[in-house]
Amino acid sequence: MEKLYQDKNYLSYLYEFITPNRREGFERVLANRTRHITIAIEDVYQLHNTSAVMRSCEVFGVQDLHVIEERFGKRIDKEIAMGAEKWVDIHRYQNANQCIDTLREKGYQIVITSPHIDANYLQDFDVSKKSAIFFGTEKNGLSPEIMNQADAKIKIPMVGFTESLNISVSAAIVIQDLMNRLRQTSIDWKLTEEELLEKRIDWTRKSIKDIDFITERYLQFQHQE
Questions:
Q1: How many whole angstroms from its chain centre is CA 158?
Q2: Domain 34-195 is classified in which CATH homologous superfamily?
Q3: Per-residue confidence (pLDDT) for residue 45, from 0 to 100
């Protein structure tokens, strides 16, 4: 199956089953997708907050969401996510170190967010480096395992009496700000051609009913040739 996600002929075959408007929509969205910035959340108790962060990733163009689920459940509130789970890649981890190790292997620096630490303000953060932005639990913030491995720290400027924001609100502010600034740079932040092909196939598959039957028929045609 993995080879199919890099098979241009397979994509051409699948395109026969969706409308041109659907394909154009994919291209418009993919042109604004990135893996230069990625988002990670740790043990978020409130289910709707995880789903809302996912929705912010989808809306602002972040392709991947990394979810550490050491203590709480493995569900997504589809009513809140509003379909975002189809278009954002969700990566799940059993603990923080597993997540950090995976992200470092992919070239990301670890960036933590908190209003209660000595950190750079959001608008001063350097977007040139590949960055994984971590958000913690509603009550306790990020665990020491993550705090101690941070390469950079950021916080949202606040001028009111209440020096905290809901995690989903914080994530939306950070993602929107970083993505807006990233698009104004000359950094090569877009998906690679290989990644674009994979997402075209993935999204097209998710748009077709009876995809298993259609794929099986394609493979039979390929075998006959």
A1: 26
A2: SPOUT methyltransferase, trefoil knot domain (3.40.1280.10)
A3: 59
